[in-house]
Amino acid sequence: MLHIVRRLSMVSIAALWLVTFAFAQAQQQATPTGAGQAAPTRQAAPDTCWGKSPCIEDRRPPVAFREDWTDPTPGVPTAYLDRDLDSHLQNKNMQHGRYGLGAKDAMYDRHVSPRDDPGYIWLGSCAAGPCVITLKDKSDYLDLTNPLAKVVWRTRQGGFRQLRLVLKLADGSFLISERYAAPAEDWNISEISIRDTRWRVLKIVDPRMYEDALVEKPDLSRIDEIGFTDLMLGGPSFTSGTSRVDWIEVHGDRVKRPAGTN
What we know:
CATH topology: Jelly Rolls
Number of strands: 16
Low-confidence stretches: none
Largest sheet: 7 strands, antiparallel
Radius of gyration: 34 Å
């Protein structure tokens, strides 16, 4: 009987020792860091930019330029047609380029009705052949290599018209975008992301104008001019097929032209 009592006493002492040890450990972990003790190192917050570093959204390109074209009678609905496109440029450091057999007839247009219709560049008058209208900054090239470079514009296309971007590079070659502003029954704002579009060579050999070979990795670091075309003959009315551009805004970087290159 005595040995049973002794064994129970030893078990009780061991259990008490384990409880005391566990309590002491818990107290030590709960005790805040005292004076002179180094604070535990905190882990850096995980990257939240979808695992990318640096985050491309932290460097969005500026608006390189926006062109609205000036209305000769602002606020007054007026019928107006003018082939002198440069006279309507808001930014006088810009100039237009015209390419294609019908380009000489492209117009700045304005209507009496509908009353809220803006003045716009009209490709419907390019009846002699397809045309390209471009904009060129006299001081700077465009650099559209930023992954977030884009073009935003307000357009209206009738019939089956698809309005595409055209780039004239510093070496004189032309590219045309596979992405486009689609036909629309009313004015609408859309955008084309430069990195999301593929580019083809644009051939301009009067009286023809057509897309050619795909360019896998075009150099978009020095763009001389940027513009638009629908690759089609102009139509005399909206329903027979026309393309209209109210304004265009290019998000990209500017690169100073070398002296004497304008």
